[in-house]
Structure formats: structure tokens, C-alpha cells
Amino acid sequence: MARHHHIIRTALAIAGAASLVALAACSSAPPAEPGASGEPAAGGGETITVGFSQVGAESGWRAANTKSIQDTLTTENGFELSFSDAQQKQENQISAIRNYIAQGVDVIAFSPVVETGWDAVLQEAKSAGIPVVLTDRAVDTTVEDAYVSFIGSDFILEGEMAGEWAAEQYDGEGYKVVELQGTTGSAPAIDRKEGFAAAIDGTDLEIIDSQTGDFTRDGGKKVMEGFLTAHDDIDLVFAHNDDMGLGAIEAIEAAGKVPGEDIKIITIDAVKDGMQALADGKINYIVECNPLLGPDLADVIKKVVAGEEVEERIVVKDEAFDQEAAKAALPDRQY
Ligand code: AHR
Questions:
Q1: Would you say 266 and 236 are in contact if contact means Cβ atoms under 8 Å apart?
Q2: What is the CATH number of domain 155-289?
Q3: 312 within ligand 1 shell (Cβ under 6 A)
Q4: Domain 4-153+291-318: CATH architecture, name and number where available
Q5: Each residue's pLDDT tens digit, 276-334
Q6: Which pTM value belongs to this model?
Q7: How many angstroms separate the alpha carbon of residue 264 from the centre of ligand 1?
Q8: Dist CA 217 CA 221 (whole Å)
Q9: Could you tell me if the CB of 47 is within 6 A of ligand 1?
Q10: CATH 3.40.50.2300-classified regions of the chain
Q11: Which of 162, 175, 190, 244 could form an SS bridge with 235, CB 3.0 to 4.6 Å?
Q12: 98-143, pLDDT tens digit by residue?
């Protein structure tokens, strides 16, 4: 089930108003034995034990995603959650998943820091009969039926939306673009780069430099400082997330330039800090990446444990904001 999200784009575009798009392909797992702990849950069922391995705490988006998962997979909702933070290291995620297998949890869920390198541990979970649910990021694996469902945004589409807006604004003006990439080898970095490049292909926008800032504010600032030293003709920054864009703002201001005016900025996420910078005129456009995956994860896990069919791919629909839209949306923004 490698990189299903590439195929999803058209379906998402067609789906229109629905906030979540569940694709037709379904898979079912044999019912797991609910409640290794045997504790009764509220509502009469038994507690479902879940091991969740999170990427890290690298961004505002990740903080909102963690909160959504921890607020949803609660004892009151019938879950016993073991949560671990991998600090952006794949080896930490693999050892966390192995611990969950050893504990015999009912379901393992994780957001993979990078796309490849999961075959052995996914095979181990499969051999132990523990269903795996992916959230947020995809894996590229040769293990058949390695996971029962993948819940998250279409990152290629996000990159395309950013690139299409840039192409509409600046085509014909010979714009020089620098790109702040997310974590090397991660699905959002690979896909957002691909989507943006495709959308500006054939226009007068040119990517003159592209490096990773690892999805962190500090990383974005440091890489942007290097870009500003190496190039005196940067018109536009495409940052793969808000945090790197916010770091770039600091670097641009320190260099005596005005972010949003001298150098335009496009980012992805639309978390509160990013939206505030957009409303303040320091960012020019943001494509949303919705982090509130907890409710869908809870729903999928309950179905898997009950032996019901679940959607193999659940695509989260994202919006986009210009400066005026950000001002209107900020008062009610949840994250
Ligand atoms: O995988 C989602 C990405 O990871 C978010 O866009 C970014 O902020 C986070 O670190």
C-alpha cells in the first residue's frame, strides 16, 4: 500500500465540501482481543489499549496534533493510550513500536518521521497480529497489508495549492524563489516539493535554492540566513511549514528587509502563529494542513477492534488563506 496519497488528489478535488474524504477501498482486520488490561470502559465496552508513536514536538502543527490525539484517546472514551515522542528519530519510533508489540497492545498507531525503512517492524506487528494505523504521514513499504488505514492530508495537493497561488500572483515577473524543505525523506517534504514544482513549471518563477530546515523555527531561520548571504535577489520563500516560515521572518528582519513586502512568504499548516503573521502582513499566503486527526483515529481504531471494515485511506481536506481570510478566521481558530 505504498504512497496511496499520490492517487488521491483527483478524488479530493471532486469531493468538494466534505471535510473528510473516505475512499472506497476498505480493509478489515480480524477483531483484536479488546482490552489487554481487561478494564471496562465507559459505555459498557472494554478498554482498548493503543500504542501511539509521535514524530516529535518540532512544530506548532505537531503540538496541535498531539493534543488532538491525547484529548480523544482518553479513558472516558474507552482507550488506554501509551504515547511516545520520537524526537524526530526513526530509531526511536522503531523501538517504541517494538515495545508496543511486546506489550501486546490492541492497536498500534504512528506518524512516521520518514517514508522508508519500516518493513521489518511493520512485518513484526503483522506477525504479532496487531493492526497498525498510520496518521499524518505515509510509508513506502513492500510489506503487504502493512497497515489497515492511513488518515491524513494530501501533501502533493498542498504543494500544488501553494504553487498555483504563487504562479497566479507572480508569473511574468521573473520571480526568484527559495525553498525551505521539511525533514529530509519525510512524506510532507517529498510531496510538497513535488506539488509546488509541478504548479510553477512553465512559469517565470524559478527555484534558485532549496534546503531542509527540518520543520523547525530554528532550522528555518538558520537556512534562511544562509540563503540571504548567498543570494541578494530573493523574491519569494516557499516554506514547507509555518514554523520554518516564522524562522525565515526573523532572518529577513535581521537582514534589514521587510518580510511580506521585500521578500514574500508562502507557508503550509495555518496554525495560530502562522495565521497571526499572515494577518500582520509578514506572510502572504498559507495552505492549511489540518492537525486534528484524533477523532478519525479513534473511530478507525474502534472499528478495527470490532472487526468492522475501515477505509484504507482517509484524506483530510485543507483550505488556504490570504491575508484578509486570515484576519477573518483567526478569532475562531482552534489551533
Ligand atoms: O507531517 C505534517 C508536518 O509535520 C507539518 O506540516 C509540520 O509542521 C510538521 O512538523
A1: yes
A2: 3.40.50.2300
A3: no
A4: 3-Layer(aba) Sandwich (3.40)
A5: 999 999 999 999 999 999 999 999 999 999 999 999 999 999 999 999 999 999 999 98
A6: 0.89
A7: 21
A8: 6
A9: no
A10: 4-153+291-318, 155-289
A11: 175
A12: 999 999 999 999 999 999 999 999 999 999 999 999 999 999 999 9
